Amino acid sequence: MDIEAWLLDLGLGEYASVFRDNDVDLEVLSELTAEDLIALGVTSIGHRRKLLSAIATLAESTTLPRMASPAPAASDSRAERRQLTVMFVDLVGSTELSQRLDPEDTREVILAYQQAVSREIARYEGRVAKLMGDGVLAYFGWPQAHEDDAERAVRAGLAAASATARLAGPGGTPLAARVGIATGLVVVGDLIGEGAAQEEAVVGDTPNLAARLQALAEPGSVVIAEVTQRLVAGLFTGTDLGEHNLKGFSAPVRCWRIAGETGAESRFEARHAVLPPLVGREDELAFLLERWHCATSGQGQAVLLSGEAGIGKSRLLAALSAQIGAGPHCELRYFCSAYHTDSALHPLIAHLERAAGFMRDDNADTRLDKLAALLGATGIETGEALPLLATLLSIDLGERYQLPKLPAPTLRARTLATLTRVVEASAAKAPVLALVEDAHWIDPTSAEWLETVVEQAAGLPALLVVTARPEFEPRWKARSHVGVLRLGRLEPSDGTAIMERVAGGKKLPRDVADRILANTEGVPLFVEELTRTVLDSGLLIEAGDRYLAIGQLPAIAIPSTLQDSLMARLDRLSPVKETAQIGACIGRVFGYRLLAAVSGTGQDRLDDALNQLEQAELVFRGGTAREAIYTFKHALVRDTAYQSLLKSRRQQIHAKVAAALEAEFAEIAEAEPETVAQHYTLAGLAAEAASWWLTAGKRAMTRSANREAATHFGKGLELVVTLPASETRLRQELSLWMAMGSALISVKGWADPEVLQAFATARELAERLGDKAQLFAAVRGESAFRTISGHLRIAESLAVQCKTLGMELAQATGDSAYLLEAHHQLWGVNFYLGNYESAETFASYGLATYDYERHRHLAWGYTGHDPGVCCRSFCAQMLCIRGKQDMAIQQSREAVDLAERVAHPMSLAQAQMALSVVHLMRREPGEGRRWAEKAMAVCTEFAIPLLLGQARVFFGWALAALGQLDDGIQQMRQGIGAIAMTGADMGMAYYLCALARACGERGEASEGLALLEQAIEALAKSDSNYQLPELLSAKGELLSLLDPRDDAVEGLFRQSLAAAREQGAKLAELRSALRLARLWSGRGRGSEARDLLAPAYAAFKEGFDTPDLAEARGLLQRLSHAAAAP
């Protein structure tokens, strides 16, 4: 049956075009209601009743096709997240009307009002969502978006108020309507109800806000919300009504009353009274090419290319690459990812895998062969480089290669050096263009490599270009060979050039081009994508060298934002839309195999969908067949596809991605556990995510990526606290807090408050669970914090508790590690208390118990360093203090050797510093400086702030002792400041003592004495006697510089001597005796001086070549000669 003929038979042919324009066919005809007819513009009550009667008669006599009624439950398949402008219109005084009029008359008035309002809504292409007697609810932007939906809604609101005012109520009194309009993000598209009662539901605050705003409106007026006002600013005049407290809204809502139009000729004019500055691209490209020419002549260059998302950074790189392409060169590309900001070296790993041509099914031998071929082609010897890079790429070396048995920090350093050498070797063959994209997402380790490459680039025939968003501000940008290029917006002429290129060299209609330029405002990606949207719309036809519009181009052809533009393109490619959304959940880059596993789509359908995406230039493909890797053309493309999904649907997809990675892509899950964790997090599966964040953090710690590890543990903790209370949750939380404590020690130092929080929380959880092993570890950690932060008595009490727990656990499990770690804490506490004999006893237990194979793993647990290295380091210092100076050197060297074998950065730095301080105590500043520099290098490379500050103090001490007083004092002050920043207190008095002595050497005795008072006060506050004799002796020395005859000088030397004897500190005893002997000798008390110094010297059995013993020996000889003289 023909609808038009049917209408003609009814004498209602004037509606034929309306039915046709609104796609009313036989299927829709059976569902039409009176409200639908009003929306169609059938304002005559008689015509409506005639149509409804005819439809009913037709349905009885003919089987009309009917739309299937969906299940009452909402379905996510139709629902979408969209920006929507909602209008609520209410008839003023409707209750009074119903009381004054006959019900049938009231009905006629309300129908006339509904018709008038619906007519205006339809005029501006809005959608009447619901008629509620005296209320009308309308949507602008659904199901079809327009670039100016907010403007349309306001115009419709003004028109509806005017149309209502033209209607007559009882006695000819004009009717009035109130209108409220609001714009916001909603979920729209769910079908609720059945049959004729079915409607699309909108979920969000926006409809409620529109209803509340109409209640604020005066009769005949329109009130709009703040977001709507921003969208129509400059188009309408109005009054700011200020903020109002509205029911259902926690914060005050600002709103405006609209009076009328401003008279602006265009939206662009209204929005831009003053045009923003726009910049082209020719100058930027010329700048990069000039840098390239400098690089090819041997003057290496680096450029930071900065700009907002979509501004054209990648496009400019493509132009640069194309310009350079004809000449001999090597291009290296590295892509950073938002999913891998905490995955160490992810951009470089991905680069190597692409460059080597790895396939998923390649076994280890094949990958090794491909990697070897890549290195060979680059010109790098495979001997050491291949095992290092293969390990980085998680390739099993098998029997073919052997990873050098070197400490982890050394392996890490050599791996980074090898990655840098790839660039250098490539540059030796041909000029290199190295491109690092999206550096605002770079991981810390890659950032470290990048900084090195930037430095090295100066001496290579290479141009390094790093793209990033404006928030990325690296410190290397200030280097002399680094240029900074910030991209601005395009000029209209440049935008026109992009449009014509996308259109294949053809010109667009002038009004279309102008509207594109006005909407994109100089952002090149916006220009490009909106042009494609217009070309794909079917509303233009080719005519020679140009396109022509088919009639007047409707506003829908040019959405106002890029997001709307991209969504419109996705909507037109239904199967592609879902594929793009799933790919977007995987990430900016996604592989065919993983996409197939997650989507569950058959191969033919998936291939077709991907081909359409590629043809639409939404994604680029690399590789072939099932090994293909797809990349979204731009991060904004990916974001648009991703954000269009409902949260629930996103979570479902992320859950499938994580499960697929676990079950089918074990190699990715093992190498990148943080990727699995991220997907579980976004899936809302907190328990699974927390478990994977713990795994990711532990893996990062084994690679000395401690900052990344702390980040991973932190993410796990954020999730685990959201889980329901249970023993499983508590154990998971406990494991994360313990791991966090160990990681934070490396990142922030033992005394940082966050370290205490981690171990104290873990202790509480362990006590609740009755888990003695974890309680032992937590108490051990808290005791370490208390030690370094200067609360020694608390630390001692906790250490004793730790020993008790350790004995129980060792007896129950047979694991000697518990008692070893308990003694580990006890030797540290007692050392800083100044109880050197006890400390030496506890450390001797460590020397006797530690076994490399059984205990080396402890370096990555508990308090983050190796107990075997630590006991040797402390023993060395105690041996030196107690007068066994040669044995101290031997013990220190053993500590360094063991630390290198264990391959743990913090342990290595600790051992190197111990060797440095032993040399300094022996007054051998040259060696002290050398080992302090080594420790500083390790601490800098692995970001260990507390130990770096300590190493800097020793370095400055050595410089001062070598005569470089200014530099030495400056270094010591910097180091002491850095230590203080970590909250550490232990050892600070000794560092201040060294600084005070240097100040005295520089003629600043008063400054030195002030520092010593501060140091002695710090010792007293923490109940510490660590190096107390040295502080008292130093104070006497500085006082003697001010007044050699001051009686207090002798008193201080006597106090120092007594303290040294009490501690068994033979070296300090000798020094105090030597200073007293010199003092007495100068005062004619030579015999007393000899009697004091001789036994102190005789106590030494080694170290006779050290300055202190040599000076004591010399003085004794002079005193003996003087005594023998007549």
Write structural notes for this entry:
The protein has 1126 residues and is of the alpha/beta class. Among the domains are: 1-67, DNA polymerase, domain 1, CATH 1.10.150; 79-271, 2-Layer Sandwich (Alpha-Beta Plaits); 282-486, 3-Layer(aba) Sandwich (Rossmann fold), CATH 3.40.50.300; 492-560; 1014-1126, Serine Threonine Protein Phosphatase 5, Tetratricopeptide repeat (Alpha Horseshoe), CATH 1.25.40. Strands 1, 2, 3, 4, 5, 6, 7 and 8 form an eight-stranded mixed beta sheet that branches. A hairpin with a 6-residue loop joins β4 and β5. The termini are far apart.
Give keywords.
Rossmann fold; alpha/beta; Alpha-Beta Plaits; 1126 residues; DNA polymerase, domain 1; five-stranded parallel sheet
Give the structure's gist in a few sentences:
With 1126 residues, this protein is of the alpha/beta class. Helix content is 61%, strand content 10%. The strands form four sheets. Strands 1, 2, 3, 4, 5, 6, 7 and 8 form an eight-stranded mixed sheet that branches. It has a five-stranded parallel sheet with strand order 10-11-12-9-13, with helices on both faces.
